[in-house]
């Protein structure tokens, strides 16, 4: 047991150290090297524009089920649905918008990044980049990092709006709440601090997806089977880190007065 525990601790420490080195190289590429502007724009399209349909579908039905559950519950307690707009808007803006968007991006984009870089790693294309005088981190990781940290907050804004509109549809059509009441509840209780709370978390979540996916891609070994394992690890680790770090980010942002 002691041997197994020690081996796992050493393995985790090695992974953490290599991930820290990758983060350092990414930031070095951000501030010291010229960006591959065309590749950055290409990644923004892949990460942001191409993810709009699945993010829209996820946030729409999330907002709808939030309105249905909160409206029905408050109706059973108070004999009428109250504060549905407030609960839907705050839930989407503070938590569900950034978290669900990041999880969707990690499943769709993170897997693609890990598979792409992992395939290049096992087919020795990464070594070819070194031979050509191009650093793989600057050429592959930096554009994907920039794409994630730029587009995940934008997708989160889009998801917040779609989710709130989904809640509005259920509130007005099924629960019979006037649109003016739904809008008034949102404007009365939600502030820009709440919006910034979610966007700051989305920024960090985007960075987590990019770093984890690139790390798993560069660490790929073992041919096609290794690519599959790296892809699975990238998605699972990204999702777990997003959910864990969400708590600490929320506690920190609330402690400094950003968001409720």
Question: What descriptors fit this protein?
Answer:
single chain, elongated, mainly alpha, 260 residues
Radius of gyration: 21 Å
Structural class: mainly alpha
Name the helicity range.
Answer: over 70%
User: Unreliable runs, pLDDT <50, ≥5 residues?
Assistant: none
Short note summarizing the structure:
The chain is an all-alpha fold and 260 residues long. Helix content is 86%, strand content 0%. The longest helix is centred in the middle third of the chain and has 39 residues, at 84-122.
Describe the 3D structure.
With 260 residues, the protein is an all-alpha fold. Helices cover 86% and strands 0% of the residues. The longest helix is centred in the middle third of the chain and has 39 residues, at 84-122. The relative contact order is 0.16.
């Amino acid at each position: 047991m002691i041997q197994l525990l020690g081996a796992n601790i050493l393995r985790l420490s090695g992974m953490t150290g290599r991930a820290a080195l990758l983060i350092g190289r990414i930031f070095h590429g951000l501030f010291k090297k010229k960006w591959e502007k065309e590749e950055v724009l290409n990644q923004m399209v892949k990460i942001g524009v191409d993810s709009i349909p699945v993010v829209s579908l996820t946030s729409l039905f999330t907002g709808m089920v939030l309105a249905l559950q909160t409206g029905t519950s408050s109706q059973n307690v108070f004999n009428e649905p109250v504060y549905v707009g407030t609960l839907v808007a705050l839930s989407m803006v503070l938590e569900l918008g950034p978290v669900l968007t990041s999880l969707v991006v990690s499943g769709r984009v993170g897997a693609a990044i890990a598979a792409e870089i992992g395939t290049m790693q096992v087919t020795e294309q990464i070594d070819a980049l070194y031979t050509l005088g191009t650093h793989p981190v600057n050429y592959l990781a930096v554009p994907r990092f920039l794409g994630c940290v730029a587009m995940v907050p934008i997708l989160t804004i889009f998801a917040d709006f779609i989710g709130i509109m989904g809640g509005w549809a259920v509130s007005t059509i099924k629960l019979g709440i006037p649109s003016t009441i739904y809008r008034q509840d949102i404007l009365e209780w939600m502030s820009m601090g709440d919006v910034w709370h979610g966007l700051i978390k989305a920024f960090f979540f985007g960075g987590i997806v990019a770093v984890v996916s690139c790390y798993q891609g560069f660490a790929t070994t073992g041919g096609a089977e290794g690519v599959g394992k790296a892809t699975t690890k990238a998605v699972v680790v990204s999702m777990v880190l997003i959910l864990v770090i969400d708590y600490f980010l929320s506690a920190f942002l609330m402690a400094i007065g950003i968001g409720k």
